Amino acid sequence: MVSVYFANISARSYGASSDSAGSIEFTLSVHSLIKILPASKEYFYEITSDGRGRYKFNDNIPPRSTKCIRFEIALDANAVNQYYEHLFWNINLLLRDVLIENHRNNIRVVPTFIPKIHTDVLLVTNAHVGRSEFLAYQNLFRLFKYSNQTWDIERYGAFHNPELIWLNTTELIIFIYSKPESTFQTMKSDLFLQHMKSSENAGFICIGAGLPMELDFGLFDYNNLQFIDD
What we know:
Elements: E1 2-8, E2 14-15, E3 24-30, E4 34-36, E5 46-47, E6 53-56, E7 60-61, E8 65-71, E9 73-75, E10 86-95, E11 98-108, E12 119-125, H1 131-144, E13 148-152, H2 153-156, E14 170-176, H3 183-186, H4 189-197, E15 203-207, E16 220-221, E17 226-227
Parallel strand pairs: 12-13, 12-14, 14-15
Antiparallel strand pairs: 1-8, 2-7, 3-6, 3-10, 4-9, 5-6, 10-11, 16-17
């Protein structure tokens, strides 16, 4: 979903009425691997012959008010070959059919986490992970014949996301570019403990810049399955 918020900061209204300051229209263009879906009853826009989304206001936007418009989008099946790349989308604002503003942004393509399957490794990524590093990990997992899937922090948020259950879906959790002292902000200690007790092969690896003393939070007694307190 692409959401666009339009703020009318002037003292005049804009829209379709004869006494407005002029007609307003948005056009959305996207990367070839992104498809604009046909409008539903909730979202009123049309798709042009060249694949762009076009939204024209048929009502008025009152002075000093805000309007939100949304375009439904989906990734093409071939987007799986672009994991951890950024695909552009571009939106134009036209006043009386004249371009007055342009905004460009990107959609980062990441794998979908599937809670109903079990893998050897769960790779936890964030905004610092690029495609080349992701592919390097995939090659490493293939070398060791490890099944794996990915949890991206930007997409799914912290590990205690109540809407997605990752517990008991993996043996080894690998955090990439996660500072040791901030790992508990991603994964609560009680979930760490539940994970470590879930299997005799359970474990976690935290990869990132940090001093050895910063790892004190994660000293773990594998024999007694508990964290070690100083």
